[in-house]
Amino acid sequence: MLLQVSVGRLGVITQLSLSIVPQQAVQRAEQDMTAAQFAQQVKQVQDAYTQAKQTGSSEAVWTALHSLNETQVERA
């Protein structure tokens, strides 16, 4: 049996550095809403995202999406 190993033209990675970003503080809030209210909230975020994307600003896009960043839906 013949085994062949190739490391490619770029060489072998021998060292790697990663930047570590601290986590943000976690906040929890609960809000009861109907499916229609939730859909309206998603539509508002979608509209804000569309407008932010047209500006080309990554900060504006982040701001538009931030409100849904941690949103979770629980089924009763």
Note down, in words, how this protein is organized:
The protein has a domain at 35-66. The protein contains 2 helices and no strands. The chain has helices at residues 35-55, 58-66. It is elongated and about 65 Å long. The protein starts with 34 loop residues before the first helix and ends in a 10-residue tail after the last helix. The mean pLDDT is 79.
Key features?
76 residues, mainly alpha, 2 helices, 39% helix
Per-chain topology:
Layout: H1 35-55, H2 58-66
Helix pairs in contact: 1-2
Q: First CA to last CA: what distance? A: 60 Å
* Fraction in beta strands: under 5%
Total count of strands: 0
Low-confidence stretches: none
Rough shape? elongated
Helix and strand pattern: HH
Number of helices: 2
How much helix is in the residues? 25-40%
- Give the class from helix and strand content and strand pairing: mainly alpha
| Biggest pleated-sheet summary | none
Mean pLDDT: 79
Radius of gyration from the alpha-carbon trace, in angstroms: 22 Å
